[in-house]
## 1
Amino acid sequence: MTTEELNSPQGYKTPVGILGVGHFVPEEIVTNADLTKFVDTSDEWIVSRTGIRARRRAAPHQATSDLAVEAGRRALQAAGTRAEDLDLIIVATMTPDCPMPATSTMVQHQLGATRAGGFDLNIACSGFVYALITGAQFVASGTFRRVLVIGADCMTRLMNWKDRSTCVLFGDGAGAVVLGPVEPGYGIVGIHAGVNGAGGPSLTVNAGGSRMPSWSEGVDSSDYYLQMEGPEVFRFAVSVMGEAAIKALENGGFTPDQVSLFIPHQANARIIEASRKRLNLPHERVFSNVEHYGNTSCGSVPLALSEALEQGRIQDGDLIALVGFGGGLSWASAAIRWGGKKES
Ligand code: ACO
């Protein structure tokens, strides 16, 4: 099988679409001005380099599963699906509550999804789109009818608040979708995914795994923080984001000019603007909420999708394109014809 065939969903036995979307963010808003009280930065620098004005921070008692459960609950409500009817829960996260048990098991329990299986998926900020196209395979094959896909992260837990080059960029949040069969011609019509492991060292959290366990010699707190070669990741993101969208669209037989709304990973307004230009789309056909939330990693794309729907930016029949990118280095994309919901 060629890569092209692997990336094409044309072989779907059952068309798969998004039946409902929801999101949840913690209450506390941390503005750029708040950050200037303890780190050498300015609102002007952050806004001009990233477009970010504020981010949310989880309360001490909140962990990723808490955000995921609430986003999942809202997606189920929007879809009109009962938790008991779920077949599978996939949680994309790089900040699980703990290494074991998986966050998806906590979500299953909290939601009361008594029949559902579950697993976590970690491919950094690309996680949600990877989880979306993974979950879709189960519906497409006819194996499952209802799959809950959640992207959730508490990125502030990985921040070194003394490192101004990273701590201003990230926030906490979650988004979720319910996948199920849709009418022919609707749903996920094109997908694409890739990694470039050679770029891995440019975006890391070094400790806490099997290479550098907590008790190993020389480990200090900085090894638990997210570390990033910002300009390198920036160049990667600019080169990959538009291309990934184009490949997913091409796999479905579409071109960028047919896209009604482009929903990219919300990491940096300059990266979003570069991909908008690459796709030659007008501003009104690109969605961004990075200003309010910063980079919420796996939460980013579904949180943007959820807000786009709330704002009436997506109508039945619209072609939308989702793209995630992040550590790995990694990326994934999906083209979706919105609507076509069947009565369950
Ligand atoms: N406030 C003030 N000055 C700062 C700050 C700050 N918060 N951060 C860095 N600077 C300074 C630097 O020290 C540097 O100063 P110097 O020239 O005196 O050395 C100067 O600003 C320029 O620094 P750069 O890093 O070159 O700034 P750049 O324009 O590249 O912007 C940024 C940095 C915003 C991080 C950009 O590179 C970026 O967005 N990169 C991509 C990040 C990203 O998308 N990450 C996705 C992660 S996805 C995942 O999987 C987790």
## 2
Amino acid sequence: MGRVMSLFEDDALFQGQQQQKLCTGAFVLRGFAFAQAMALHEAVSRMTVRAPFRNMVTPGGFCMSVAMTNCGSYGWISDSIGYRYDAIDPQSGQPWPRMPEIFMALAQSAAAATGFQKYVPDACLINRYDPGTRLSMHQDMDEHDKEAPIVSVSLGIPAVFLWGGMRRQDEHIRIPLFHGDVVVWGGPARFRYHGVLPIKEECHTLTGRCRINLTFRKVMDDSQGSG
Ligand code: SIN
Ligand code: FE2
């Protein structure tokens, strides 16, 4: 009997069945967030009323081109003092918006799909890339929990993600990321250098002329608690 590719199978392929391994502990899940993209974007729009996107300043005094905000128990911030996580949004003096259920569910299912069980992120950094903006090569080092993976969700116009090694000068590969793609890195890949090339001018039906990236992190290390 001939095999007929149904619409359903096609969707399944698009919605996360395609997994690319970058190295031990790092994976690209093509289209994994595609079905939830509209709801994720709506949630971002709601939370940015209370915690608007802003261009933070590096400790060296440079204004970051990527606009950022956060949700969850902690938010990543940068200012003249340094990079760190804080429970309070310095702009409003209020806690960051809570992490929506749909964010948590997506981050947990992406982590589980790549072998990271029991993932409970307590922070989500939300980056907005307008055309021409970029993120230079860096390691995600500010989290106290060094075990939990990073889960990164791409929405809107495409980007070229740079995936490097353990040292800044190591070779890197270029990975195009599209609307709905998710990247997970943890375990031996947790401290790999990564970055984003300058974003090309484009327009997306959901986000307009920008790319939104959500990166989930676990900031607090439960094992350091009183228990
Ligand atoms: C990040 O490294 O925090 C963001 C990565 C991305 O925008 O894809
Ligand atoms: Fe990062």
